[in-house]
Amino acid sequence: MKSSVSGLLSEGREYMTFNQLLYVVEVSKTKSINATAHALFVSQSCVSTAIRELEDELGIIIFNRTNRGITITKDGETFIHYANNIIQQCKLLEEKYLGGEEHKRHFSVVMHHSTVAAKAFANVVKEFGLLDYEYSIYETNTLTVLEKVRSAKSELGILYISTFNQDYYEKTFKELNLIFKSIAEYEVYAYIGENHPLASRKEIELSELEKYPCLIFAQDENSSFYFYEEIIRACLKNHFV
Q1: Residue ranges of the domains in the chain?
Q2: Which of 60, 68, 90, 159 is most open to solvent, judged by the fewest CB atoms within 10 Å of its CB?
Q3: CA–CA separation, 190 vs 124, rounded Å?
Q4: How far is CA 236 from each of CA 138, 224, 239, rounded to the nearest angstrom?
Q5: Integer CA distances (angstroms), 25 to 28, 72, 99, 208, in order
Q6: Residue 162 above 90 pLDDT?
Q7: Per-residue pLDDT tens for 186-196?
Q8: Which CATH architecture has domain 9-97?
Q9: Which residues pair with 109 in a beta bridge?
Q10: What is the 3-state secondary structure (H, E, C) of 55-97?
């Protein structure tokens, strides 16, 4: 990608350059200044100096540097969110005006596992066609859904939310500057084998499932249990993934 943006101006002076934003975002992905320098074909000192000057100018610490490696600070997470959005917009500008040909618009959806949402996505593709748009859909864990929408890599994220985790999700949405809109409400179903002791029942209380193991979709190992897609809390004590 061409670094064609010279910088942003404040009070008649140049400070936050595009390269600095690019270095910060890349380091946030690699967790390594050396790996970032190698990937961007610049020197390690160039990356390190650019980020340090940016931190000094803004008066914040973006990365904590220790013998164990690099971690992102709270201020850094917020800054990287906005920096990544700027870089994504610059990519779109370059594709549109410097690409030499007209590019299709891209629409991406990231979501929990959902046949209903997948069918709705297929209907969107059918309605708008393939002439002007490129489409992508991802089924993944909760943290990835949140991150892809937060970083503007996907326009829409679809999650399952219950009364059990609603407050936790609302707090998370606020922290990540995300907007949540309810699409639909669904009944909860338990999928069990035909020979299961509860198979003949039309309705089952969640408490009745506590003594049985349940199958859940795998989440990131660092995820909060509030991010599980399944509504069954009791079964989480005794589950198979």
Answers
A1: 9-97, 105-240
A2: 68
A3: 30
A4: 25, 12, 6
A5: 5, 11, 23, 48
A6: no
A7: 888 888 889 99
A8: Orthogonal Bundle (1.10)
A9: 137, 156
A10: HHHHCCCCEEEECCEEEECHHHHHHHHHHHHHHHHHHHHHHHH
